[in-house]
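Trying the structure run again after the queue cleared.
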Amino acid sequence: MPITLTAALVLVPALLFAARFLSKKLPWGKYARRSSRVDVTLLVIGVIGLVLHCVAMFYRSILAVIPGTDGYIAAVNAMGPASVVLYVVPALLVLIGLRRQRPVALVIVAVTLVAVCVTMYNGGPLSIHLVTIAAATVAIAGTAALLVKRPPDRHKPAVA
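Done. Tokens:
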């Protein structure tokens, strides 16, 4: 994976979340929907799983520094059923975590995740796979940063 793409895959979500925290107009009130703590947790776990899958494929030596990751790295790079499961489960967690968001946003994220999966396992050109990874990154980060409202505060009583 080209280092410029890797930098962009880190920078774009960072900029989206920075914009969210710096702007009082984000998340977009008219389009945003509240997520539960469980939703946010599933989303984060799913994203971590997807990132680990990518790192195992493109930056093995970085992940190999963590003790006990050799089996995971081997399973991902074997491109067999275990690799598919290690991609699909985090992708499903992301979708479950975003399930309360606008249907169009959820469909965009789902389509990009399916595109990543198809281009990863169909033996096609790496360049197409990298484009789908970039699209999925923007879709997930954009949805999370611009549309996901914070879970309700547990300490405040609900207003009727």
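Residues 13 and 141 are 5 Å apart (CA to CA). Worth checking whether this holds up in the mutant runs.
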